[in-house]
Each structure stands twice: as C-alpha cells, then as structure tokens.
Amino acid sequence: MRLSEYFLPTLKENPAEAQIVSHRLMLRAGMVRQSSAGIYTWLPLGLKVLRKVEEIVREEQDKAGCQELLMPTIQSADLWKESGRYEDYGKEMLRITDRHDRDMLYGPTNEELITEVFKGAVRSYKDLPKMLYHIQWKFRDEVRPRFGVMRGREFLMKDSYSFDLDSAGARVSYNKMFVTYLKTFQRMGLKAIPMAADTGPIGGDMSHEFLILADTGESQVFCHKNYLDLEIPEEDIDFNDHDGLQETVNKFTAEYAATDEMHDEAKGAALGSDLMTARGIEVGHIFNFGTKYSEPMKAVVTTGEGKEVAVEMGSYGIGVSRLVGGIIEASHDDNGIIWPESVAPFKVGLINLKTGDELCDSVCEDLYNRLNAAGAEALYDDRKDRAGAKFANMDLIGLPWQLVVGPRGLKDGVVELKNRASGEKQELSLDDAMSKLVG
Ligand code: P5A
Predict the structure, then answer these.
(1) Are 281 and 314 members of one domain?
(2) Less CB within 10 Å around the terminal CB: N or C of the chain?
(3) What are phi and psi for residue 406, nearest 5 degrees?
C-alpha cells in the first residue's frame, strides 16, 4: 500500500476524550473513529489488525475441533423468554420491536440461539461431542462505555459453545478451550493468566477469566508471581490426549489467582511476598453451565440406554475487538504502538527520504515490489514530507520494521533497517535488507 493513496487519517495531537493509551493511540494512528458512545467505525489500518487477531482466534478454534458457523446479530426475544433470561438481562440488552410488534433484541451473547440450532439437529449421543463457534458483533448497552474498544457497546466477540453427553465430557471440552486460549493469546504476544471467576449473567459452576496484566486494566488482580514465568508448551496440542490437557489445566490453576470479585484475603495473605497485585484486562472468559439452557429449552439427546438427557453445555468467549486495544496496552512506548509481528497491519514501513529523487524513487519502487511479491506486506511512504514527520508517523503506527531509503546511504549502496521494538538500526545492502525481511 502506498501511503499517498491510503486512507490513514492520523492525528498529531492527543485526543482529549481518550483516557488510556490504547484509545489515544488507536485514534491517533487512524485505526478507529467513534460513531456514537461505545460504537466505532474501524478504518482500514484498524480493520487489518482486527482481521489478523480474528484469524489467529479462528485458526486455534479450528485446531481444537471447533466448527465455525455464523449466527445473526438480531435475535427473537421468544428464545430468551424460554431460557428465563429475557427479564434477568436487564438494561444491558438492546430491545427492539419490529414492524409486526414482535420483540427482538440485538444479541449480547448466543447461548439461547445456539441451543435452538443444536436441538433442531442433534438427537443422539452418537452425534456428541460437538463444539461450534462464531465470530460476530455483539451489543451490550453498558452504563459506562469507555476506554475506546476496550469497553464498547458494540464489540466483536468469538463465542464457542460445547455440547456433551455428561459432565466428564463437558470437562474435556472445557479443558480443550482452556488450553486453546493459552495458545491463542500467546500467539498475539500476550501473557494471559487464567483466574477463577464469577459467572454473572451467563451462569454455571465453573468459570475462568483470562487476564492480561496492564496498569490501565479495569480489574484488580491478585496472583502468585509464579504465573509470570509459566511457559505454554510450544508444540502443537494433542486434543485427543485428555490427561495431557488436564495436566496443563492443573499447571495453570495450581497457584492462587483471582480478580477482586473472587479474591479471598486470607488466601492472598498466605502467599506472603509471593503475592502479586496488579491491574488486568479480561480478554477471555469460559464457562461450564451444565444444563442451565438445555433443560428449559429441552435440548435433549438419547443415551446408549435409550434414556433422554439434557445435553451438558459450556460457552467460551474471547473479546476480539477488545484484544486490539489490549495488545496496544501491553506493547507501546512514548512514540506509539509496537505491533507484534503476528498481528501487525503491515510487516514493513518503507520510508523514502527524498521522494522525487530519481534513484530513491526507483530503489523504493523495486523494494516495494519485491517485498509485496515475497508476502511481506509493505506500507510505502511515498509522500513528499519531512524525514522527521515520516519517522514519527511510522513510529506511531508501530509496524515491526522500518526500511529507510535515502540519497546518502544509496551512494554507498546501503539502506537502513530499523526494528521498531528494540530501536536497533542496521545499515545493509539492498539484498541483505531483503533477506532479513523475507528470509
Ligand atoms: C462466553 C461466550 C460471554 O458472553 N457467552 C458466550 C459468554 N462471556 S463474557 O465474559 O460476557 O464475554 C466474553 C468476552 O467478551 C469481551 N467483552 C467485551 N469486549 C468489549 N466491550 C465490551 N463491552 C465487552 N464485554 C465483554 C471480554 O473479553 C469477555 O471476556
């Protein structure tokens, strides 16, 4: 992409309405614009990151044997009346009446809808277990939408749902998602700590929140400091190895970890100097709620003995749009965003220090074409602007690599390659720079 053509409305000044760094940087880097309270338009640069985050989430769900479908955003209130949650959900639910005076709603979550889809299709234990997911916009009329996409009213969530014959099976599904979540967040350069959690309006008796640590996090967290050093296995997860899954879950739940809602002062104090208190951002939340929905909604299957039983269920959420803000909270400096490569909107920012100079232009064109052809997406700053402004802009949008082409270097046949995260700069020949970037 050429910057001269790109729709990238960056801001020089800090927007007054943004209280936390990710919100400030997302506005300044031209990633999002607020459309109304807690509702955002994703501009091209922001959308690219959102899609990359979404894709990592999708790949890991697929690996775990979860199958993707797509449910609608608008749901009929009837289903929620069946489960009993229509009244309970309160003002957070955006209620809509259609032209025939039917009660509809903009889905804040999909337990009812998926239960309905499931019960129309599955009757026998032979079809179990099943795990289904979608990545879809949700709406929650939060009292205080704030911090940009971190607490929006409209937000993108990945929600999965598991269906099992019995509670032992449901535990395996829960463990699969638990371990998948560790992997998913790790791929985005995040260390997410699982914490025992309250189940709130989703319900159930077993639940974990996954939190990343950041000073601006909304939750106060208390945990053993060993969590900072726990390593997630690098190799692919074997989802058929149920004991292995349980071992990993045990490892990540062995030490004390709780958010303020669940914190037990005595347990915290018992850790002494090993207790870490910090702020955290909830990026995922998983629930096992047995038959809370399947029973009232009559989602039953026939067992091997011919008995009818309500199916055991769980649900598993990831805040996809929140993660974009969360990653920035975890990775930035005074100059701007520092994207981990896995979610970066472009891999390389190519800076032409003297647009209009024949040699600079032709070398940049050549590098730009070679990078893109090799699959290393480049954003080429081909505008006529001051070098300082170009550097500041590239630092702000945080691409992992900056490739700087100027007349002075070209005289000696070199360009400069800067790593955004470390700040390290190297003078390299064109070919060496290329092989460093595309391997
Ligand atoms: C699990 C999947 C659920 O809704 N039902 C389906 C369950 N869980 S949850 O914890 O309420 O939400 C899942 C994740 O969504 C993100 N999230 C938000 N992101 C941005 N703005 C919001 N207002 C918001 N509310 C929830 C969180 O990451 C949460 O873990």
Answers:
(1) yes
(2) C
(3) -135, 160
Structural domain that includes position 312: 21-337
Q: Would the CA dihedral through 108, 109, 115, 118 be positive or negative? A: positive
Determine, yes or no, domain membership for 5: no
150 CA: nearest ligand 1 atom: 20
Q: Atom 2 of ligand 1 has which residue's CA nearest to it?
A: 317
**CA distance linking residue 347 with residue 367, whole number of Å:** 13
Q: Which residues line ligand 1 (CB under 6 A)?
A: 109, 140, 142, 151-152, 155, 157, 159, 202, 282-285, 287, 315-317, 319, 321-322
Residue 119, H or E segment:
helix 111-119
The reply to whether 156 and 260 lie within a common domain is: yes
Q: Which protein residue has the closest C-alpha to ligand 1 atom 26?
A: 319
The alpha-helical segments, DSSP class H, found in 135-209 are 167-187
List the one residue out of 285, 225, 231, 229 whose CA is nearest residue 257. Answer: 225
What is the pLDDT, as a whole number, of residue 9? 97
CATH number at residue 131: 3.30.930.10
The Cα–Cα gap between 31 and 40 comes to 10
Distances (CA, A) of 140 to 38, 39, 74, 421: 10, 11, 13, 36
Burial of 99 (0-12, 13-18, 19+ CB in 10 A): exposed
Angle at the Cα of 31 from the Cα atoms of 213 and 40, rounded to 5 degrees = 85
| CB-CB neighbours of 230 under 10 Å | 15
Q: pTM here?
A: 0.97
Q: Which residues of the chain have pLDDT under 50?
A: none
Cβ 281 vs Cβ 322: under 8 Å: yes
Pairing of strands 308-310, 257-259: unpaired
Both 270 and 306 in one domain: the answer is yes
Residues 267 and 206 in one domain: yes
Residue 199 has a pLDDT of 79
